[in-house]
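Hi all, long-time lurker, first post. I run a small reading group and we've been trying to get comfortable going from sequence to structure in the token notation. Rather than ask abstract questions, I figured I'd post a concrete chain and ask someone more experienced to write out its structure so we can walk through it together at our next meeting. Sequence below, copied exactly:
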Amino acid sequence: MEEANKARTPEPHKPYAGAGAGDDASKKQQLCDDEKGGEAEENYRGWKAMPYVIGNETFEKLGTIGTMANLLVYLTTVYGMKSAAAATLLNLFGGTVNLAPLLGAFLSDTYLGRYATLALASLTSFLGMLLLTLTAAVPALHPRHNAPASAAQLAALLLSFALLAVGAGGIRPCNLAFGADQFDPRTPSGRRGIASFFNWYYFTFTIAMMISATLIIYLQSNVSWALGLAVPAALMGLSCALFFMGTRLYVRVRPEGSPFTSFAQVLVAAFRKRRLPSPASPAELYDPPHRSSLVAKIAYTDQFRCLDKAAVVVAGEDDQSSPSPWRLCTVQQVEEVKCLARLIPVWSSGIVYYIVLTNLGNYNVLQAMQTDRRIGGAGFEVPAGSFVVFNMLALTVWIPVYDRLVVPAVQRVTRREGGITQLQRIGTGIALSIVTMLVAAAVERRRRRVGDATSCFVLVPQQLLAGLSEAFAVIGQVEFYYKQFPENMRSVAGALLFLGFALASYASGLMVTVVHRTTGGPGRPDWLAQDLNQGRVDLYYLLIAAMAAVNLVYFVACARWYRFKKSDADAAAVELEETDDGLKPNRVAGPPAV
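-- Answer (accepted) --
Happy to help. Here is the structure in token form:
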């Protein structure tokens, strides 16, 4: 058995600093002794790298959101598409953009690494925006005089969309994980930096959305489409420049190969050995020395014990110098699969949460269209789509307050880094989503009673509450996925968030269709009638609030069952995760008894 363990010991994997960092940076990288496998000690720059990382992400978001925010109007006015055809095209585009990060995450974690993926994806997005700008600026690339678009014009448009989708597929799963990679998770300051980085990342995201929803849309709608699309393209170019300027400072982590192959090996090996009796003790499982510098050694857990059989050594396997990985897996491989299995129920609760946000976002616009949006005597009318700014405003104001004031205050009480756990933060956001929908239902009931003379600003409270809910739930999910996924799947963790958005979008469309067809009758309009005064959107909001309440109960059950990932006491790398005593470097005395 000991011989087999030695034979299966993986080669150490070495993270590396930016290429061409110079002799000075090279001297700062110290080699560990041979007992640690000769791994390189990273020179984490932390906040010194953040001007480039956050600057890159801010301008990338400004460019991307500014480009996509008004595409429906662009397609119907410049390309002369019917609204249904334009909406269908954008739905396909949106679904592709949200699903592409899964492929991008796989390529990043398996072959390219996050730095190379981000570099290639940023350049691809810039080319896509540049081409889209040309479709507006060059007369030959868009229809004129209400003529239908030619095949060449549609090809240029669709090629720009394809480039944008490829760019999003690489940027979305990697940018958060790459930023967090710049902090050392083994030090208290590094761990605080990671948590703070997630907050400030989302802060810059909301700032970008606010600017896009106001200034850039104004340029596109009131000045010219060429200028309105050129500004986001220029911002994306600036984003690329900032990203490459910081290359010398970045910590870059090499991929260790496909984690999905390892997961498949565990499932196949466990199935082959399904008839074996469960091991009496974890000590009987195949557990060779762990020397990976990327993935921390995970402590044994007694959940999903059926998977433990993949690490059971049967007669003959301990005599082989290199046993088949499809028949015998390590405890580390099994625990990585368990991490993913534990995450799926928590992730699934996020889908229902996103359904709340999606429906509120859609119908808030329709509500605004049937209110009095005039301000002052000059006849200025607030655009119906601009009320999302109040959602972003709540996020923008709350995140710095939470990060700088609330967290330190709560931390003093709970003695836990971050003040509360990520699961508590997510649960708070889900609870606030219920309140949001109840307030939205009450506001809609009042709007129907008063009619179209209702002031548009009655919609502000529900938007503020939605923004506050996002500040807890969405940021909590981002941090939770990053910390709980195996380190070699952190790009996949970023993609998981967008997969939830995509599924929620499809589910919301299905909900609207079902409610539209089942709530109406002869002489009676359905809840979602074209004229909201004839419909009952308030009842639809109450239905969503009830779904959110059930989802909260489900989430609490999942959270109570969930076990946070812990690193093994004998591993060289120590992973920071939640324990009963708060967030501390987790030195586990040993695996629990079975």
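A couple of things your group might point at:
The chain has 16 helices and six strands.
Confidence is low (pLDDT under 50) at residues 1-41, 569-594.
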